[in-house]
TrEMBL record, chain A:
Domain ABC transmembrane type-1 residue range list: 71-282
Membrane-spanning ranges: 12-36, 75-96, 103-128, 156-180, 213-230, 264-285
Similarity-based family: Belongs to the binding-protein-dependent transport system permease family.
Database matches in InterPro entries: MetI-like (IPR000515), MetI-like_sf (IPR035906), Sugar_ABC_transporter (IPR052730)
CDD domains per record: TM_PBP2 (cd06261)
Keywords assigned: Membrane, Transmembrane, Transmembrane helix, Transport
Subcellular location: Cell membrane
Protein name (database record): Sugar ABC transporter permease
One GO CC annotation: plasma membrane
Keyword Magnesium: no
UniProt record, GO biological process: transmembrane transport
Membrane topology: Multi-pass membrane protein
Entry keyword annotation includes DNA damage: no
TrEMBL record, chain B:
Cellular compartments annotated: Cell membrane
Membrane among keywords: yes
SUPFAM superfamilies, A to Z: MetI-like
Entries under InterPro entries matching the protein: BP-dep_ABC_trans_perm, MetI-like, MetI-like_sf
Gene Ontology BP term (one): transmembrane transport
Membrane-crossing segments per the record: 12-30, 69-90, 102-122, 134-156, 177-203, 234-255
Domain ABC transmembrane type-1 residue range list: 65-255
Keywords recorded for this protein, A-Z: Cell membrane, Membrane, Transmembrane, Transmembrane helix, Transport
Top-level taxon in the UniProt lineage: Bacteria
Topology of the protein relative to the lipid bilayer: Multi-pass membrane protein
GO cellular component: plasma membrane
PROSITE patterns: ABC_TM1
The protein's name in its UniProt record: Carbohydrate ABC transporter permease
Length: 300, 268
C-alpha cells in the first residue's frame, strides 16, 4: 500500500510527540547537565567536562571497573537467556494444541507469568528457591545437591537465569505461535504430497513464517534483559558479592544509593547510547526484512 | 501434520514448570507462619484466611492496590487516546521525518527505567506531582505510548484504505470518521494495546516506587513492609503476591482470543 505524502499528518502525531518528549527529552537534559559537572554538596556545581566519561571508560578506575564488570555480566546474562528462551519458545509454540478448549487454557496459563509484577516474580523465586521453606531449594538439597542462592555464585546465577526463563519464555512462544497460526493449511498439504520430512517442513515453511516475529522477540528479550533490575534485585540483591549486579542495579546503586550524580549521569548516557545503537541495528534489519518480503509474498 | 512428536508431553512439562512456583506461593498464602517455618508441607494442613483478612482490613495494605490500579488505568487511557491519531498518521501518510520519529519512539520503549529514576524524581517534584498517581501514570507513558503506537499502527494498516476514502466521499468529517468508523473497526486492536499498557504499567516497580512516598504508594512497594524486626511475615507476603496476580489473570481471560495476534503486535 503506497502511502500519501501529507505534512498535515504531523498534527495527528503532535500529541504523542509532546507527551513522549516531556518524559524523555526533559529528563535526559538533566542527565546531560549532571554528567559534565561535579558537586561538593549544597547544590554547588562545578564544570567537570568529560571527566566522568574518561573515568567511566577507563577500566583501571573504580567507576570504570564497576561499569565494565557489570556490562560484561549483563551481556553474558542476555546471551544465556536468549540461547535458552528462543529455542525453547519455538519448541513450545510447535507443541501448542491446535484446536479445542485446550488452546485457550494453554494461552492463559502461558501469559500468566507475564502479568505478574516484577518484584512479585522475584518474591516467588526467592521463596521457591529457599532451602528451608521453598519447594525447589528443599527438593534439591534433599537430593543431596548443596544448593543455596544466597551464598553460592553459581546457584545465584542459575536461579536468576531459570527465573528469567520462567518469566519470559512465554513471550517468545506466544510470538512464534502467532507466526505459525498465519500459515495456511494448504502449505502443509503441499508439503505432505511432496513427502517432505518434519525437519524440511520446519525449515522451509515454519521458520520463514516466524522470521519476523522472532526478530521482534529477540529485540524485546535482549532489551528487557539488558535493563533487568527488579527481579534479580529482589532475589539476590546483586550478590553474593557483586556476582549478579547487572548494569541497572549498578546504576541505581550509584544514583540513588551513593547519590553520585555525575558518575550516574555519565553511566546513564553511555548505557542509553548502547541501547539506541542496538535498537537501530534491529530496526534497520526489521525494516529491510519487511521490504524484502513483500514482493515474494504468496510465491513460496 | 505440523506438530512435533511428543508435543503433549512437552506442553504438559512446560505448563507444570510455569505453574509450580505460582502454586507454591498460593500454598504458602493459606498457611500460618508457624506451619511455613516449622514443616515442609505440600498443601496447607491448617488452612487459614488470616493473611488475606489482614490485607483486606488494613487500609495501608489495600490502599496499595487501589493506588496501583489508579495509575495503571490513568496510564492506559492516556496512552491509547494519545496513540490512536498518531498510529493512523503513521499508517496512512508519509511526512517529514516520519521514519526517524517512529524510530525515536521505539527507542524510548527500550529505555532503561534505571536511567530515568533520578531525573523523573527531580522533574515531578519540580511540578508538584510527586507522590500522586499522575506522576507514575505520566512516567509510564514513556514506554507505553510508543508501544501503543507500534501496536495500533499494525492494526490500522490492516484496515483497507478504500474504507477511509468511501467515508470521506460520503461526507464524513475526519473526527466523525475516526470515532464512528475507524475505532469500531480496530476495536480488537485497541483491546490488545490496552492490555499491553495495563501489563507493562502493572508490572513496573522501579519508577512507581521512586515517584511515590506515602499517598500513592503502589502495592509492590507496600509489600516490602513484611520485613520487620520479628523476621519475615512469609504468609502475608505470599497472600499479597497472590492478590497482585489476580488482576493480570482477569485481564488475560478477557483478551484470551486475541492474545496470540496481540503479542505479534498485529504484524503477522
Amino acid at each position: 500500500m503506497e502511502k500519501i505524502v501529507n505534512q498535515k499528518a504531523w498534527f495527528l502525531v503532535l500529541p504523542v510527540f509532546a507527551i513522549v518528549a516531556f518524559s524523555a527529552i526533559l529528563p535526559l537534559m538533566t542527565v546531560v547537565n549532571y554528567s559534565v559537572q561535579d558537586t561538593f554538596g549544597n547544590n554547588q556545581f562545578f564544570w567537570n567536562g568529560v571527566g566522568w566519561f574518561k573515568e567511566l571508560l577507563d577500566p583501571s578506575t573504580d567507576l570504570g571497573g564497576r561499569f565494565f564488570a557489570s556490562l560484561w555480566r549483563n551481556l553474558a546474562f542476555s546471551a544465556i537467556i536468549l540461547a535458552i528462551e528462543v529455542p525453547l519458545g519455538i519448541v513450545v509454540a510447535l507443541a501448542m494444541p491446535r484446536h479445542g478448549w485446550s488452546v485457550a487454557a494453554c494461552l492463559v496459563i502461558m501469559a500468566l507469568p507475564l502479568l505478574i509484577p516484577w518484584n512479585v516474580v522475584g518474591t516467588i523465586w526467592q521463596i521457591f528457591g529457599r532451602p528451608d521453606i521453598g519447594l525447589l531449594g528443599y527438593t534439591l538439597n534433599g537430593l543431596g545437591i548443596n544448593y543455596n542462592y544466597v551464598s553460592n555464585e553459581f546457584d545465584a546465577w542459575a536461579t536468576v537465569v531459570v527465573m528469567d526463563v520462567w518469566h519470559w519464555t512465554s513471550l517468545v512462544a506466544l510470538l512464534c505461535y502467532a507466526g505459525l497460526k498465519s500459515i495456511p493449511d494448504a502449505y502443509y498439504q503441499a508439503a505432505q504430497i511432496d513427502g517432505a520430512s518434519r525437519w524440511a517442513v520446519f525449515k522451509a515453511i515454519q521458520l520463514p513464517k516466524m522470521h519476523r516475529v522472532l526478530l521482534i522477540a529477540v529485540l524485546l528479550r535482549f532489551m528487557d534483559s539488558f535493563m533487568i533490575y527488579t527481579e534479580p534485585f529482589v532475589v539476590t540483591g546483586g550478590g553474593p558479592g557483586n556476582s549478579t549486579t547487572f548494569i541497572s542495579i549498578e546504576l541505581v546503586k550509584i544514583a540513588l544509593g551513593q547519590f553520585d550524580l555525575g558518575k550516574a549521569a555519565a553511566l546513564s548516557i553511555v548505557y542509553n547510547l548502547i541501547i539506541i545503537i542496538v535498537c537501530w541495528v534491529f530496526y534497520t534489519v526489521m525494516t529491510n526484512a519487511g521490504a524484502e518480503r513483500r514482493p515474494t509474498e504468496g510465491s513460496v | 501434520m505440523h506438530s512435533i512428536p511428543g508435543r503433549r508431553i512437552v506442553m504438559a512439562l512446560y505448563l507444570l514448570f510455569l505453574l509450580l512456583p505460582i502454586y507454591w506461593l498460593v500454598n504458602m498464602s493459606f498457611k500460618t507462619n508457624g506451619e511455613i517455618v516449622s514443616t515442609m508441607t505440600l498443601w496447607p494442613h491448617q488452612p487459614t484466611l488470616e493473611n488475606y483478612r489482614t490485607i483486606f482490613t488494613d487500609p495501608s495494605w489495600y490502599s496499595g492496590y487501589i493506588n496501583s490500579l489508579q495509575y495503571v488505568v490513568i496510564n492506559t487511557v492516556l496512552s491509547i487516546s494519545f496513540a490512536l491519531p498518531a498510529a493512523y498518521a503513521f499508517s496512512r501518510y508519509r511526512f517529514l521525518g516520519d521514519k526517524h520519529l517512529f524510530f525515536w519512539l521505539l527507542s524510548n520503549r527500550m529505555a532503561p527505567a534505571a536511567v530515568y529514576a533520578l531525573p523523573f524524581f527531580n522533574l515531578y517534584s519540580a511540578i508538584n506531582l510527586f507522590d500522586t498517581p499522575w506522576a507514575v501514570a505520566l512516567a509510564h507513558c514513556l514506554f507505553n505510548v510508543p508501544l501503543a503506537v507500534w501496536i495500533l499502527e499494525g492494526f490500522v494498516s490492516g484496515v483497507p484504505r478504500e474504507i477511509d476514502e468511501t467515508a470521506f466521499l460520503d461526507g464524513y468529517s475526519f473526527p466523525r470518521f475516526f470515532v464512528k468508523i475507524l475505532i469500531p473497526l480496530i476495536a480488537s486492536g485497541i483491546g490488545v494495546a490496552a492490555f499491553f499498557c495495563f501489563m507493562f504499567s502493572w508490572v513496573e516497580l522501579l519508577l512507581a516506587r521512586t515517584l511515590t512516598s506515602v499517598n500513592a504508594k503502589p502495592i509492590a512497594a507496600v509489600m516490602t513492609r513484611t520485613v520487620s524486626a520479628a523476621g519475615m511475615d512469609w504468609g502475608l507476603l505470599a497472600a499479597a503476591g497472590v492478590l497482585t496476580i489476580i488482576p493480570g489473570a482477569l485481564v488475560i481471560w478477557f483478551v484470551r482470543n486475541y492474545i496470540a495476534r496481540g503479542f505479534a503486535l498485529g504484524r503477522v
